[in-house]
């Protein structure tokens, strides 16, 4: 890392080549999304290069990277939590009740409730919602695939989110706990 701090690109490339794949695999354990894992790993290496003169490594470079990766994953999940509630037009709770056996048993019922809410959407709104949220397609990709304008896609997503918000509002804390269980356990 001393050579990297001096701006040595070969030393940086050596660190990148020796740690990038392991870092991606580590992030993949938490994120379950290879593209996102690679994106966050690249962000970490970009940060290392940008801050190379200021970074103090107390143990090993590998430990530094994996700590940074864990922090990036946690930050990502916090942002996702915020977006999850914002998209439903709800405030994120300050604290979530501890996960109990009762919560785990309720997951199946909760998933069915969510599925029923999605199934109750108008056909086109449902299709567009699923393309956006389940297939992770952009509004532009959806518009191109369905031969619609991006504005029409946005309108259908808005309809879907309003209807889901109305039906699921009383259950948002349970839904969030379910989401945590689904993504971390």
UniProtKB/TrEMBL annotation:
Q: Which GO biological process annotations does it have? A: DNA-templated transcription initiation
Task: Tell me which InterPro entries the record gives.
Answer: RNA_pol_sigma-70-like (IPR039425), RNA_pol_sigma-70_dom (IPR014284), RNA_pol_sigma70_bacteroid (IPR014327), RNA_pol_sigma70_r2 (IPR007627), RNA_pol_sigma70_r4_t2 (IPR013249), RNA_pol_sigma_r2 (IPR013325), RNA_pol_sigma_r3/r4-like (IPR013324), WH-like_DNA-bd_sf (IPR036388)
Tell me the keywords, alphabetical order.
Sigma factor, Transcription, Transcription regulation
Pfam family, any one: Sigma70_r2
What are the protein's GO molecular function terms? Answer: DNA binding; sigma factor activity
- Keyword Transport among UniProt keywords: no
Q: Where are the transmembrane segments?
A: none
Q: Which CDD domains match?
A: Sigma70_r4
Annotated RNA polymerase sigma factor 70 region 4 type domain residues: 112-164
RNA polymerase sigma-70 region domain location is 15-82
Family designation = Belongs to the sigma-70 factor family. ECF subfamily.
Put simply, this protein is called: RNA polymerase sigma-70 factor (ECF subfamily)
Organism of provenance? Sunxiuqinia elliptica
């Amino acid at each position: 890392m001393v050579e990297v701090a001096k701006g040595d690109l070969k030393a940086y490339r050596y660190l990148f080549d020796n740690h990038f794949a392991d870092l991606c695999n580590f992030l993949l354990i938490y994120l379950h999304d290879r593209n996102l894992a690679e994106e966050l790993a690249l962000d970490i290496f970009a940060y290392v290069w940008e801050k190379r003169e200021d970074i103090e490594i107390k143990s090993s470079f590998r430990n530094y990277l994996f700590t940074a990766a864990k922090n990036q994953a946690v930050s990502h999940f916090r942002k996702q939590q915020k977006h999850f509630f914002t998209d439903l037009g709800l405030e994120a709770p300050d604290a979530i009740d501890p996960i109990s056996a009762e919560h785990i048993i309720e997951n199946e019922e909760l998933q069915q409730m969510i599925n029923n809410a999605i199934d109750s959407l108008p056909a086109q709104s449902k299709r567009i919602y699923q393309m956006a949220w389940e297939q992770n397609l952009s509004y532009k990709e959806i518009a191109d695939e369905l031969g619609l304008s991006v504005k029409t896609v946005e309108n259908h997503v808005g309809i879907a989110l309003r209807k889901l918000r109305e039906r699921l509002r009383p259950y948002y804390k349970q839904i969030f706990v379910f989401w945590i269980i689904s993504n971390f356990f």
